[in-house]
Structures are given as C-alpha cells and as structure tokens.
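Exercise 7.
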Amino acid sequence: MAKIVILFVCVAVMQVASALQCYNCVNCQGDMKTWPKQACGSSGASPPAGYEYACATVEYKDRTTYKTAVDRLCVSAEKKNGKLMFKCPTSKGEPLKDDCPVCQTDLCNSSASIRFSFVALSCVVLAIFLPKYLQ
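Solution. The predicted structure, written as tokens, is:
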C-alpha cells in the first residue's frame, strides 16, 4: 500500500518538475506530429510577477489572405482571480476572440479534443481501489 502512495507522489512530482511543453507554430497545418514543440521558460527566465507560462491557441483572420489562421505558442499569461488570461494579439490580423484560450498541460494547445492526465487517471484508480484495500 505504501508503495502505491509513494509511486503516486513520485509521478505527481515529476509532472510538476518538468517544463511545460507547447506546440509552437505559425498557421499550423497538416499532421500535428510534425508541429514544432517548445519548452516554456527554457531560457531560464521566470515570467513577470502575476503571470505564468501557458500554451496558447491564437485564431485570427489573416490580413493578407482574409482566411482564418491558427498560431500555437508558449506565452506569459496574466493570472487574475486564479484564472489565466491572455489577450489575443492583433499584429497578424483580427483575432476571432478577445481572450485566447490558454492551458497548462503538455501540448494542450493542439486541436480541440478530450485530453487526460496520467496523474488524474491515477487519482481515479486510487479513489476506486484504495477504499477496498483500507478495509
């Protein structure tokens, strides 16, 4: 039993200790396996006070082609009331939203899909089986 708890703690610490990985591409197209990846904060610099590193997906209408384009990148997102906020940049075109979606799990700025975390899955498994072994 103690080994399971120690294993769970080790997995949780490993996820926290590793740098956040984000897709980093301009007008991302094609197979996402080919999209370049970036470690947020790999330069060693910390984000400014009140900000945290996050992966972002920026959707905008391109100024030259007038087509919708999607950039994926690592950003410093402002943390307000416990929630991360990132104002969509307007440098390449008109953003489709004021606030761009941000997330803080590895490669979470891929196409919209259901994602799961190994730690969350471990918690569910432990929640199911732990009470049976403690009786």
